[in-house]
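Lab notebook, bench 4. Still working through the backlog of constructs that have no structural model yet. Next entry is a single chain of 215 residues. Request: give me the C-alpha cells for it.
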Amino acid sequence: MWNLYELLRVETNCQTIVAIVSESLSYRLRQSFRLMCLLYKLSLDLKLISVSNMICEQSYDQYVRSLSARLMDQNVDSSDISADNFETLIDTSIALSLLTTRPSIVISRVEPYLNEATFIQYNCGRLKAIIDRYDREYVANGVDAARDLSLLTHDLEWTLVFHNLSKYRSIIAASDDLNATFSQLVLFLKEFVRDVSVYYKKVKILTEPSAHLRG
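Model written out:
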C-alpha cells in the first residue's frame, strides 16, 4: 500500500528553491543560475547599478546585517541560527528576488523576501522530518508500501496530488530552458509549501498515533 508520504518522497526531493534550481535542472541552467547569484553578490559588493532586474542599494555585508536586524525585529535571535542555516536563508532570499518577478519588473531590494524564504525553509524542514521518519520507521523496516492512491481520503491530500505534485515534472521540464519564465517555478514552490502548511496543521503527521502514515 502506498500513501501521500511515499508520493512526496518519490516525486520531489523537498529541497529549498536553491537546491531545486541547482540540482533538478540541466547543467546549462545550473551554471546560469549560479552565475546570476554570483553576479548579484558581486554587484552588492561593488555597488553596481543593476544585475538582471535587481537594483542594488547595499553591499553584501550590509544586506546580511539588514537580514539579521529583521530577524531580531521578528523576535528571532540570529545568534541562535547556525551559520549554515542563516546562509541558506540569505541564499533563498536572493533566489526568490532573482526568480520571483518577471524580468520586466524592477525591484530594489531583496529584504521583502525574507519572510517568504523563512516560510519555505520552515515547511521544507517539516517535509524533511516527515520523509526522514517515514524512511526510518517504515522503509528501513521493510514496510515500504505498494502504491495505492485509494488510501488518500483527505481533500487536502488530493489537493497536494493534483494541484502540486502532478505538476512537478512538467514545471521542472518547462523551466529547463534559459528562455523560461522562472517566476512560474517560484510560484509553484510557493503554492506547494502553502498547501503543505495547511495540510500539516490539519493532520498531525508527526504525532502519535500515526495510523495515517500506514496503509
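Notes after review: Strands lie at 50-51, 54-55. The two ends are 5 Å apart (CA to CA). Flag for follow-up if needed.
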